[in-house]
Amino acid sequence: MADEANRTAFLEIQASMIELSGKLKQVQNQMRNKEGDRKRAYLTLEELRALPQDTNTYKSIGRTFVLEPKTVLEGEQEQKLKDSEAAIASLQTSKEYLEKQTAEVENNLRELLQQEPGIARQIMSMSM
């Protein structure tokens, strides 16, 4: 009976570990994408700022380029930069939370294995 309870507890811990690992990878990928967006917006903004004020600037809309004032394009790039930084901060908070959850689940697994050393043998026999 205790073996079945331990096995069930292990399977629950394993499932939550797999779920947390997937979520953590997803958040890391989203952060990587937002970092790229932020960098692209920053570099574009730096190039726009280097141009003289009377330069014709164009905005890409699909396959079409539309003449836009330089100030409008700068404003859009600044907004993209701010949005990316806000998203990165939010994702960093999520990442830290998921890392704490993962550490907690790992501790639960360690406690389970320390309480019942026999379950480690059962786990090893299941995986072979």
UniProtKB/TrEMBL annotation:
UniProt GO MF annotations: protein folding chaperone; unfolded protein binding
Keyword Chaperone assigned: yes
Sorted UniProt keywords: Chaperone, Coiled coil
CDD domains: Prefoldin_1
Coiled coil: 81-115
A GO biological-process term: response to cold
Family (UniProt): Belongs to the prefoldin subunit beta family.
Name of protein: Prefoldin subunit 1
Organism, scientific name: Arabis nemorensis
